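Sample A.
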Amino acid sequence: MLADVVLEPEITYTRPAALADTYTHYCPGCTHGVAHKLVAEVIDELGLRERTIGVAPVGCAVFAYNYFNVDFAEAAHGRAPAMATGIKRVLPDQMVFTYQGDGDLASIGLGEITHVAARGENLTVIFVNNAIYGMTGGQMAPTTLPGQKTASSPCGRDVEATGLPLRMAELLAGLPGTAYAVRRSLHNVKEINRAKKAIRTAFQVQQAGLGFALVELLSSCPTNWGLPPLDALKWIEDQMLPYYPLGDYKVADGVEQL
């Protein structure tokens, strides 16, 4: 009799409507795809898909507009915060976010992101930190760790010559216009779940008009790190977390009630 029982499959998860059904250009093991999924899930859960505008950077996420079913603009290298400022001021009822890597945000765009935070622009920034320039060949970035080997620092980053890596969440947390600045990671399921909650809060901060919100995500780059994908996740845990500790670096008044 049991052989005659037909069990209907139970659907436990579907692709977020805000995430396009397409192939991506990201390397195998890269966690940009995980970050995209989290952002798309939050947009759907908050009911924001019809009034969200993203700004894509120059870098590995240069084609982000192909992967989200929301309106998108493409910015020049490092200028996503400036473009997002213009869009938000012209269309204040829209939800505007930038999606930027460390080379884009912390190097050529350092001036833009700093002044946007200082002014308290009502924007959401998703900052993906993989400690290297990914798209252009694996050069040293402002976030490259001391001693880390890259295409432009084959003997390892020499801090006496190039200085120490920038901790962007901490830096931007110190500016008066920042309402929310946190660091999360994408190296395991527990931290991915915590990252999604932070992204949700960052969008809610903008909804509430509280000011600038940044979520920094530690992300893997197996290709340029020269590691298999699983080893790259372990590298985040062993090498990046000691220098980039996870945590909430600024939670302004009103954010905790969201």
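Sample B.
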Amino acid sequence: MTEPMTGDDPRGGWARAPSILLDLLPQRLRRDRPVVPVVRLSGIVGFSSPLRSGLSMAGIARALDRAFGMRNAAAVALAINSPGGSPAQSHLIFRRIRDLAEEKNRHVIAFVEDAAASGGYMIACAADEIIADPNSIVGSIGVVGASFGLDKFIARFGIERRLYTSGEHKAMLDPFLPENTEDVERLKKLQREIHDDFIALVRSRRGGKLAEGDGLFSGEFWTGRRAVDLGLVDAVGDLHSVLRQRFGNKVWTPLVSADRGWFRRRLLGAARGDLTAGGLAQASLAEDMIAALEARSVWARYGL
């Protein structure tokens, strides 16, 4: 008969050795706890300045590759906080997430923070599940374009507009020229095509969950709680609570961040007081202030 091992038994240290060695392993190599990498997708899609990065395929591609390539990942989580932006960049990010999910056979869960609106919601549709805070802003399935009409302003101050083009529509919608109804209709046709593609994408991903009608594709937006009723999201909740409930309290959720390029890091250093690049820093800060105002106007569209 084998007798129970006591604390004085010299073999006790050897018995505990595997556990001790396991604690020394990096978290990404351990198999005794579930792993769910988290990719943060935050900002206006396709919009950036030298010091303020937005969301783009180029900026987020490596982070997505690392997250989906993480061994033994039980799922991949997307933390989304975006009011939308470029439809092309939104679709490129959506497509990359779906391609990686299918290639790596990963379940994808999107968690909406302040907003997943317009292009931000398109990206959220790449997930197999969408979970929002009750007060998140969700929806805005539509297309918008904006400009200014400055032709009367320059005429008032005697400013003459000189524009030289090759191609009758090359200066279409120039803000310093009077509005042309044919050009406006041409723009609206492009918007309708993009909108139709957006609607088809949402329907293909959300399937029979959608409550058709209720202005679902009118460009309206709703709170996360109401979005559950409409089928735009699956549940209300938050990332840490849901992942712990699904995978246990020991779930490891490493944040996989996008890389900053050398040029952006250099500008950040200059902005913080590197006098050798003072002129560049001032120009970048000025551009960043303008970009911040433009970004503020986009977020304000949703009362945020």
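B remarks: Confidence is low (pLDDT under 50) at residues 1-7, 270-277. DSSP finds ten helices and eight strands in the chain.
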